[in-house]
Design a protein that fits this description.
CATH superfamily: Gcn5-related N-acetyltransferase (GNAT)
Strand order of the largest sheet: 1-2-3-4-5
CATH architecture: 3-Layer(aba) Sandwich
Number of strands: 5
Order of helices and strands: EHHEEEHEH
CATH class: Alpha Beta
Oligomer: single chain
Shape: globular
CATH topology: Aminopeptidase
Largest sheet: 5 strands, mixed
Radius of gyration: 15 Å
Number of helices: 4
Strand content: 15-25%
Distance between the termini: 45 Å
Amino acid sequence: MIRKMMKSDIHSCSEILCAVYNNELWQCRWTAETAYAYLEDYFNARKFAGFVMEENDKIIGAMFAHEKIWWNNSELFIDEMFVLPELQRNGYGSMLIKVAEDYVKAHKLAGFTLSTNKYAPAPNFYRKNGFTDCEHILFMCKEVE
């Protein structure tokens, strides 16, 4: 079952975030506190759209997203999406994408966008779910010492 996220879900979601990203592949070092604060920031966004997936009354995955205003038609930006590692590759992520697609249609948005690590398996998952690489966009960063 997938439902709209509530603030009380953030704790469970932060535990899943740590389980998904604190490993050799992603090389993250989330603590329970930083993961909670990170997800709470998304939840508190003015145009937040979040969903949790439950199985046997336990949260097993989530999507944190927000409506992003754009000049010609707003879109849904997926900030974070994750499913418990032991349940990945069972269609749960695709179900979350479908709920996001329904949200986009219901709110008459243009579509949805996201960013992910190109060296992880995630890009292939998103391509399988109809996403394409945006050749006209370059994601840039600058580290400051």
